[in-house]
Amino acid sequence: MNFTDKVVLVTGAGRGIGKAIAIAFAQAGARVAVNDINPESCTTTADEITASSGQALACHADVANKLAVQSMLIDIEDRWGRVDILINNAGVEPHKPIMQLDEWDWNRTIDVNLNGAFLCSQSVGRMMQQQGGGAIVNIASIAGRSAGLRDRSAYVASKTGLIGFTKECAREFAAYNIRVNAVCPGVIITEMTTHLRENEAQMKKWLEDIPLGRLGDPEDVTGLVLFLCSAAARYITGQAIHVDGGKVML
């Protein structure tokens, strides 16, 4: 999977899965626009890529803000003139039961996890339409399928919505030669899952439910993402594929 000279925008690439995806694309020859709401982590990922002789542009922006998204794309277009691949990865995950979840946490989760994907897909989709095609991958979750998470109602709702959006986006964007798919990770070893991994009872339950008997690494996700964006996946669109060690089988 060679992405030499392809321009890739990865949102939420300051850490975790997003960072691993950004680095993997850079190693495959792509020019990577590294987005994150945290300017420090955004710059750190971009610096790591350039330090390894890759090409990267740090794009500090809140994907839930339409003007910020548009400004980010202007910067990318000024630098490289196009966007060939979009990875909608930015996400938040408040841990509160419904009875205690305040409206701000609910709205912010939907804004980042779902609205952010819409805003980026809409703006980048228009660029891809003019370019003659492209690929979009949304990082959803098995929580959006049949494996909900207790005390994560906003997160589950946003990821369920993201899977539905992926299908409809694929249906509409196919006319422009733009493929849209979703990747649904299980429990991946990142900062976001630290709380789960520190809970021995939770860990025991997760491992009992995973046929491969281990949690995933960010690198377990990157291979599928790169494949879905490659020419090898040219006939795949509208799919939500699990990366979860077999926990959820449909």
Account of the 3D structure:
The chain is an alpha/beta fold. It has a single domain, classed as NAD(P)-binding Rossmann-like Domain (Rossmann fold, 3-Layer(aba) Sandwich). It has eight helices and seven strands. It has a seven-stranded parallel β-sheet, with helices on both faces. Helix 5 links the parallel strand 5 and strand 6. Helix 3 runs parallel beside helix 4. The model has no long low-confidence stretch (mean pLDDT 94).
What attributes does this structure have?
alpha/beta, Rossmann fold, 7 strands, 250 residues, globular, 8 helices, 46% helix
Average pLDDT: 94
Gyration radius, in Å = 17 Å
How many domains would you count in the coordinates? 1
Strand-pairing-aware structural class: alpha/beta
Number of strands: 7
**Which stretches of 5+ consecutive residues score pLDDT under 50?**
none
The secondary-structure element order is EHEHEHEHEHEHHHE
Q: Output the CATH homologous superfamily.
A: NAD(P)-binding Rossmann-like Domain
Topology record:
Elements (H helix, E strand, L loop, with lengths): L6 E4 L5 H12 L3 E6 L2 H13 L3 E6 L5 H15 L4 E4 L14 H29 L2 E6 L13 H21 L4 E8 L8 H4 L2 H10 L8 H11 L11 E4 L7
Parallel strand pairs: 1-2, 1-4, 2-3, 4-5, 5-6, 6-7
Helix pairs in contact: 1-8, 3-4, 4-5
Write a compact overview of the structure shown:
With 250 residues, this protein is α/β, with parallel strands linked by helices. Helices cover 46% and strands 15% of the residues.
